[in-house]
Amino acid sequence: MGGNNMQKTVGTALAMSLAVAMMGSGVEDEPKTPPAVDMVKRAEELRKLRWGLFVCWSFATFTNPKQEWPKGIKDASFFTAKGVDTDQWVKTAKDAEMGYILFLTRHIDGFCLWDTRTTDRKVTKSPLGLDVLAELRKSCDKYGIKLALYFAEGDLKENYYPGPYTVEMKKAQLKELLTQYGRIEFIWFDNFNPPPGMDHDQTTAYCHEFQPSTLVGYNIPPKSGEVEIRERGSAHPLDPKSGYLIAEFTYPILPDRMFHPKWFYHISDEDTPSHIPRKIYRDYAQAAKNGVLFSLDVGPDHNGKLRKLDVDTLRKVGDMIRNPPQPPNPAPVSQGKPAKASSDWNPSYDAAKAFDGDEFTRWRAAKDNKSGWIEVDLQKDTKIDRAYINQIDYDRIADVATIEEFAIEYKDGDKWKEIVRGTSIGAERELRFNPVSARFVRLNIIRARQVPTIWEFQVYESQK
User: Fold this and answer.
1) Is the four-CA dihedral 250, 252, 255, 259 of positive or negative sign?
2) CB-based contacts of 33: which residues, under 8 Å, 6+ apart?
3) Which residues of 98-107 are buried (b: 16+ CB within 10 A; e: fewer)?
4) SS (H, E, C) 319-387
5) What Cα–Cα distance (Å) separates residue 370 from each residue in 299, 352, 365, 394, 428?
6) Contact in structure between 265 and 310 (CB atoms under 8 Å)
7) Residue 407 belongs to what H/E stretch?
8) Intervals of the chain under pLDDT 50
9) What is the location of CATH 3.20.20.80 in the chain?
10) Maximum Cα–Cα distance across the chain
11) Which residues, including other chains, have CB under 8 Å from residue 184's CB and lie 6 or more apart?
């Protein structure tokens, strides 16, 4: 998403029709002073929603070859959705214990997913012929899920049909969204190439004119509004000095490669595995712990439905939220014990991070290394028969099989002896082996495609 905007059209005839529509809608140049609202309280209410489903559906879904920022599309007929199932979206969110839907109303292609009066570049002029936002509002009310909106403030220049997106159109569209579709919890503004004449603070004030309790955030500076937007960011706590009341972060359910995010469904990704439930749950748990909103992006397909793979993943995350994974019993004998490594990326990624029991810290080898080891001192000879390795990549390249060959070893005198060897770990793996008595144990990464990174390596005392 990061900087997606679309721009629309204003030929002479359209400008005249828009002016008439604007007069009828009562849009004013300057917003009125909104009634007083306790925004701190509103932020607390929003925080209780915890996480939500970010639904991205637009021209990009139907591009071939795949484009996240489609250019040069002239009219709404490009949006060839065969149907839409907003009940499925919202029911999936409900099953995942989500509190809200964050819906993309307008991307940088200028296509509007509601029945706007400002342009024909809208879903009701597409073959689908349906106000998707209105249907979503009904589904949210049906299942008791709150509604938030994503809105791109401008267009790519290649999408100016027949002319640039204007501040008058922006005002008219925001008024429609904030007066015709019920209560909106927050608005996520994508601020790439916005029309001149209306800055962040003016936009925030304009939104508050219609819904004073709606929180506002922007993914591009300068700071304005109440929500710190962290596009493809993390769940770290909000800095009290930031001036924001709440933070929200988001990333797509489809793992990306080399920082090319997949915000929209594409037919080429139909069978691409999503992030594993365990990773998503960990991000959810950290966000909930830090009071940060987590919006997980899932794109509907050509039939207006979420992929079965994604639905199944989200249901599994919902199960984890209802029945949180319990720490191992008994606890690993390696947790919190002295550790060292062949090398460290820097002191923040030292070997101890792999044995601290915190799934949000990690050991990482020094730059350019494709092998290495981490060693733990159990401080006395201990009979062990089980190990757990977690290499989930929290840099959004989840469950990449980085490690290609490894061995778990123990020290016998001055020599290291192999306990078990493997060729892959995946995201996480538990290994059982014949009991051995050892004080020093290590994970020896013999070969890896990238710099080895281990979130957790723990060994367990044999109960036999």
Assistant:
1) negative
2) none
3) bbbbbbbbbb
4) HHHHCCCCCCCCCCCCCCCCEEECCCCCHHHCHHHHHCCCCCCCEECCCCCCCEEEEEEEEEEEEEEEE
5) 35, 20, 8, 19, 19
6) no
7) strand 403-412
8) 3-29, 258, 394-399
9) 12-322
10) 88
11) 147, 148, 149, 177, 178, 211, 214
Which amino acid belongs to residue 279?
K
CA 297 to CA 249: how far, in whole Å?
Answer: 10
Q: What is the spatial distance between Cα 96 and Cα 315, in angstroms, rounded to a whole number? A: 5
Computed on alpha carbons and rounded to an integer, the radius of gyration of the chain in Å comes to 25
**How many other CB atoms are there within 10 angstroms of residue 387's CB atom?**
21
CATH no., domain 12-322 = 3.20.20.80
Residues of the chain with CATH 2.60.120.260: 339-461
Contact between residue 363 and residue 454 where contact means Cβ atoms under 8 Å apart: yes
* Cα-to-chain-centroid distance, residue 31: 33
Sign of the CA dihedral 69, 74, 75, 79?
negative
Q: Do you find a cis peptide bond into 330, omega within 30 degrees of 0?
A: yes
How many helices (H) does the chain have, and how many strands (E)? 8, 16
Give the CA angle between residues 144, 254, 273 to the nearest 5°: 105
107: closest CA among 63, 52, 45?
63
Helix (H, G, I), strand (E, B) or coil at 202: helix
**Amino acid residing at 376:** V
DSSP 184-219: --EEEEE-SSPPTT--HHHHHHHHHHH-TT-EEEES
pLDDT score, position 289:
94
What are the residues facing 174 on neighbouring strands? none
The residue type found at 79 is: F
What is the CATH code of the structural domain delimited by 339-461? Answer: 2.60.120.260
CB 188 within 8 A of CB 102: yes
pLDDT at 257: 61
pLDDT of residue 29: 46
pLDDT of 259 reads: 56
**Residue 391: predicted pLDDT:** 82
72 alpha-carbon distance from chain centroid? 28
Q: Is the separation of the CB atoms in 408 and 420 below 8 Å?
A: yes
Q: Which two tokens stand for residue 360?
A: 């949000």
Contact between 390 and 428 under an 8 Å Cβ cutoff? The reply is: yes
Cβ count within 10 A of residue 96: 26
CA gap 5, 133 in Å, rounded = 19
